[in-house]
Amino acid sequence: MTPCLTFDVYGTLIDPSDVTRQLRALLGDQAEDFYLRWRDKQLEYSFRRGLMGAYVDFSQCTREALAFINASAQTGLDAQTQTQLMDAWSQLPAFADSAAGLQQLQQQGARLYAFSNGSRAAVSALLEQAGLADYFVEVVSVETVHSFKPAPAVYEYLLSRTASQADATWLVSSNPFDVLGARHAGLRSAWVKRSDRAQFDPWGLEPDLQVASLVELAKRLPD
């Protein structure tokens, strides 16, 4: 059976922390803390909207999270600056190992899918500018389901798009909530630990694999 591997995009293939380059010019030493709070609030808003059944495009979660952190941190970023920071999300770079790891996995015969909370159009354009688009059979977006990871319905939709059984499908993500959502839905999982500070939630569900890069994943993935 041809292996089916599905990849989270933001934080796994693509480095959203690159936004701190712009923030550093605006906020100096506050930049990293501002980014981390923005990213946490972005995900929190997606979780809330998923639970409420109040879906919006993921970019709206990102925009509203930026407005909240700007107000709560009293950083005074004006509307034009906030727009420029939002635009930066469409120009994020791939992690250094992404292309090499995907190429190796593709050469090993795996079917590769991108799977994201972002819209299909936004994610497709992001992967194209980062040089990763050609590795994937398809970009699968939660927008069709009108919910967000880690809702079970989005993983069910993923399986319908890949035409693969849960126990034969791998979800590869740096986000523990995504790995846990996939495990809960019966998929196999690989956690990409992108930072030494990253911690996996102690829920009694562990990823099938823990790796530091996609190149390591290609080496360690079971046949």
What is the C-alpha radius of gyration, as a whole number of Å? 17 Å
Quote the CATH topology of the largest domain: Rossmann fold
Mean pLDDT, all residues = 96
Briefly note the structural class of the backbone.
alpha/beta
Biggest sheet architecture: 6 strands, parallel
Low-confidence stretches: none
Overview of this structure, please?
The protein folds into 2 domains: 4-15 and 92-220, HAD superfamily/HAD-like (Rossmann fold), CATH 3.40.50.1000; 16-88, DNA polymerase, domain 1 (Orthogonal Bundle), CATH 1.10.150. The longest helix has 22 residues, at 31-52. Helix 1 packs across helix 2 (31-52) and helix 5 (98-107) runs parallel beside helix 9 (214-220). Helix content is 46%, strand content 12%. The protein is globular. The chain has a 6-stranded parallel beta sheet, sandwiched between helices. The chain is an alpha/beta fold and 223 residues long. Helix 8 links the parallel strand 4 (169-173) and strand 5 (188-192).
Describe the structure concisely for a colleague:
This protein has 223 residues and is α/β, with parallel strands linked by helices.
How are the SSEs placed, and which strands pair?
Layout: E1 4-7, H1 20-27, H2 31-52, H3 58-73, H4 79-88, H5 98-107, E2 111-116, H6 120-129, E3 138-141, H7 152-162, E4 169-173, H8 176-184, E5 188-192, E6 209-211, H9 214-220
Parallel strand pairs: 1-2, 1-4, 2-3, 4-5, 5-6
What are the key terms here?
about 220 residues, alpha/beta, Rossmann fold, DNA polymerase, domain 1, 2 domains, six-stranded parallel sheet, 9 helices, about 45% helix, about 10% strand, globular
